[in-house]
Amino acid sequence: MARKSRKAEMDEVEMDLTPMIDIVFNLLIFFMLSTKFIVPEGMIEAFQTISAKGASVTPSDLADGISKALVTTFLGLLVAIPTLIAYFFFRNKVVRVTLEIGAIADDLVERFRGK
After folding, report:
1. Per-residue pLDDT tens over the stretch 83-110
2. Of 32, 30, 33, 26, which is closest to residue 73 (Cα–Cα)?
3. At what angle do helices 59-114 and 2-37 cross, to 10 degrees?
4. How many CB atoms lie within 10 A of CB 93?
5. How buried is residue 65: exposed, middle or buried, by Cβ count under 10 Å (0-12/13-18/19+)?
6. Which parts of 38-58 fold into alpha helices (H)?
7. Alpha-carbon gap, residue 101 to 42, rounded angstroms
8. The pTM is what?
9. Measured distance between the N- and C-terminal CA atoms of the chain, rounded to whole angstroms
């Protein structure tokens, strides 16, 4: 019975931390989409170059637009990855504390049961 309640606690703990993972993915999507809105050139500029020049496009024609898109994507990852690491750190810490509390509670129950 203690195992079932501990598992229920673990499920509840994970549910409480899920908004952080949602924030991570939303930030990642935001920064990837900001390639279009914040840096309007980005990949759109690269595709416009391809459409304007057709088959005679060179890598140097595309480099500026692609570099702007990569910088924006890098900034998104710079925010998203540390946030994801923090999520897993805190989730593991909560799981560890929950397991320790469960073990202490089991020991306490055993002491009272023995008397």
Report:
1. 778 878 888 888 889 899 999 999 999 8
2. 32
3. 160
4. 10
5. buried
6. 42-53
7. 52
8. 0.52
9. 20
